[in-house]
Q: What sequence folds into this?
């Protein structure tokens, strides 16, 4: 079974500063994918970034980067130059990547990020 | 470009009533998922369709829940004899296959309140 742990219920960061949101995972699957989604107060889940378990380089998407440490089973999200619009819930998720599977996502409990002036 | 849409956005019902939610995925997406999200938690997987075939169901999906995806397009999720514990946000997501990432695109959700 897959499990995602997010130990930070809430985080504060000042505008223009960088922030790291923690995520650890547990799986017995050799091939898996790790995702981060943002959920604003409107409720819609917005895809941010993806890291495959066999990817050699850490993923980056604009101001988002994923600090992937496979041996430690961690996949932390780094947001650089925080903006007020980054205030939202952030969820880490994973899926197994075997042929013939549903590729459903397993989510953590989320971290609420508040960006302050 | 239309994303995933869900209807209704909000539903208030009395315990014991039946409710049905609809999800319209992105048109070229053949995979469709239903998730349930309760307050303070991440979404939990309920069921998955590939085209019109329902290929996986979670243990969370009790006998009171049924989902369909006729013709492989829109999907419906029905809850019979609702209970207060069914109160949650029901999220639908869709994706395609064959690419490297195949991220799931989520709809805005249907918030169900059972009184």
A:
């Amino acid at each position: 079974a897959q499990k995602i742990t997010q130990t930070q219920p809430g985080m504060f960061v000042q505008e223009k500063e960088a922030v790291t949101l923690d995520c650890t995972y547990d799986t017995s699957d050799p091939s898996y994918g790790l995702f981060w989604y943002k959920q604003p107060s409107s409720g819609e889940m917005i895809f941010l970034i993806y890291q495959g378990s066999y990817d050699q380089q850490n993923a980056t998407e604009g101001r988002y980067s994923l600090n992937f440490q496979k041996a430690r089973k961690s996949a932390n999200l780094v947001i650089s130059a925080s903006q007020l619009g980054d205030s939202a819930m952030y969820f880490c998720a994973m899926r197994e990547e075997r042929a013939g599977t549903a590729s459903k996502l397993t989510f953590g409990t989320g971290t609420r990020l508040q960006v302050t002036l | 470009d239309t994303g995933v849409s869900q209807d209704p956005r909000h539903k208030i019902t009395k315990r014991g009533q039946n409710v049905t939610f609809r999800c319209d995925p992105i048109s070229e997406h053949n995979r469709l998922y239903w998730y349930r999200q309760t307050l303070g938690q991440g979404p939990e997987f309920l069921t998955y369709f590939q085209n019109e075939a329902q290929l996986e169901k979670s243990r969370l999906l009790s006998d009171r829940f049924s989902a369909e995806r006729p013709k492989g397009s829109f999907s419906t999720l029905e809850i019979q004899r609702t209970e207060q514990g069914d109160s949650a946000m029901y999220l639908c997501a869709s994706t395609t296959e064959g690419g490297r990432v195949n991220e799931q695109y989520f709809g805005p959700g249907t918030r169900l309140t059972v009184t």
